[in-house]
Write a structure and sequence with these properties.
Helix content: 10-25%
Number of helices: 3
CATH class: Mainly Beta
Structural class: mainly beta
Order of helices and strands: HEEEEEEEHEEEEHE
Radius of gyration: 25 Å
Distance between the termini: 39 Å
CATH architecture: Beta Barrel
Number of strands: 12
Strand order of the largest sheet: 1-2-3-4-5-9-10-12
């Protein structure tokens, strides 16, 4: 019985050591856009990954303003480089990992432009869209952001390929917001302090992501 116990422990230790020094590359797709990462096993239960992600989005007419005919053009551009650590706390549940780390968002902004779609009549005076102007709402989260989350499925494929998942969130830098108006709408620029106050707590970027992992 003693020899059986020693042999069992040896198998566990051997399988744990296999995790160390493994390397893989994974492509990902999710709420932070598309990206790629390099993974390296530094300890039996710990792997590091470094990568990049990008999410350029554009959309038109995503909302309407009551009693004001207008068009809206919205864009979101988030680009980051990141370093994360994957820790597997339970040997019998190697499919579950705790993930933490940091990212630097070298571009992280959202923009909305509201443009009137009709001419404006004031008495006998008819103003064109250009004379009325437009309003820009801009928000910038550029900076360092910590990350915490969970990952599901094995860090490294048992053979060559696997699919795994990330679920977590970045805590973005405090946003800088402003409103810029032109033409007759120039007065809206004075609402910048209120807009900044309204947006100050919008700092969480949720991450739901699928990873396609290849071990080499």
């Amino acid at each position: 019985m003693l020899f059986i116990g020693i042999d069992s422990n040896a198998q566990i230790d051997s399988s744990a050591k296999v995790f160390k020094n493994q390397k893989s590359i994974q492509l990902n797709l999710g709420t932070q856009g598309i990206g790629a990462e390099f993974l390296y096993g530094v300890l039996p239960k710990l792997a590091l990954r470094g990568g990049v992600n990008a999410i350029p989005l554009k959309a038109n007419d995503i909302f309407k303003i009551e009693d004001f005919n207008s068009t809206t053009h919205a864009s979101a551009d988030f680009y980051n480089i990141h370093v994360l650590a994957d820790y597997t706390p339970f040997q019998k549940a190697s499919w579950l990992r705790i993930v933490g780390g940091l990212a630097y968002f070298f571009k992280a902004d959202g923009k909305v432009r509201i443009t009137p779609s009709d001419d404006y009549t004031y008495g006998d005076l008819v103003l064109s869209e250009e004379q009325i102007g437009y309003v820009d709402l801009n928000v910038d989260w550029k900076g360092v952001a910590p990350y915490l989350g969970f990952a599901f499925a094995n860090t490294f494929p048992r053979k060559k390929f696997n699919v795994n998942f990330d679920l977590g969130a970045y805590y973005l830098s405090k946003p800088k917001a402003d409103i810029i108006g032109t033409g007759l709408l120039e007065g809206n620029s004075s609402q910048t302090p209120q807009f900044q106050s309204n947006i100050k707590n919008y700092r969480w970027l949720p991450i739901v992501q699928v990873n396609f992992n290849y071990k080499f």
